[in-house]
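Still learning. Any example?
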Amino acid sequence: MKFRNHSLALYTICLLGTASFIGGCATTGMDRSVKTSNSIQDVDNEIRKFTVQIDATAATLDALVKSGQQDLKKNFDKYSDHLAKLDHEGKRVIKRMDEMKKNSTQYFAEWEKQGDAFTNPEIRELSEERRIKLAEIYAQVPKAGLGIRGAYNSYLTNLKEIQKYLSTDLTPSGIESITPVANKAVQDMDALKSSLQPVVAALDEIKAELYSKKK
């Protein structure tokens, strides 16, 4: 009788342990889903803020090279302030995109494992089709943003060198000499902003797939 009670207790512990394990897997999948969804929104928000900051920085640089003699210091400080904000926003965009790539990779790997556990063939097939479709759409974001990191770092270097140059020669002559380089930098910032549009389009496609009702 004692042995029987001991066996029953051991069986109960094992059963609860198995239930906890299954529950843990379900929670992990749910957590990854939420984390991936949040990372999509984070990337979208950061890119839109970054785009606004690109325009603001370009405007302050343009204003600086067109400054009157009395406005040089004021406009230089504005440009420096917006350049610092651009640096901050750019790093956040790159960080968020890296996080999204990591989260989505883990999410779809987990989804694939759990999809294999379905015993109903129709549900298993539906899960596989849905996973493959979403994985292909998600993959468009890092693909669309492949060149952003390099382009951004290159543009930022030029903008900081303009700032450094003028910090030691903030005079009308110094402005005049750097104006061609500054004008080119403003054009480059427009190009950088345009390079973000494929990423925005890919994010919009993901949101449409996730949240739009099918007709």
About this structure: The helical segments are 2-65, 72-115, 121-144, 148-168, 172-195, 197-211. The chain has six helices and no strands. The chain has one domain: 38-211.
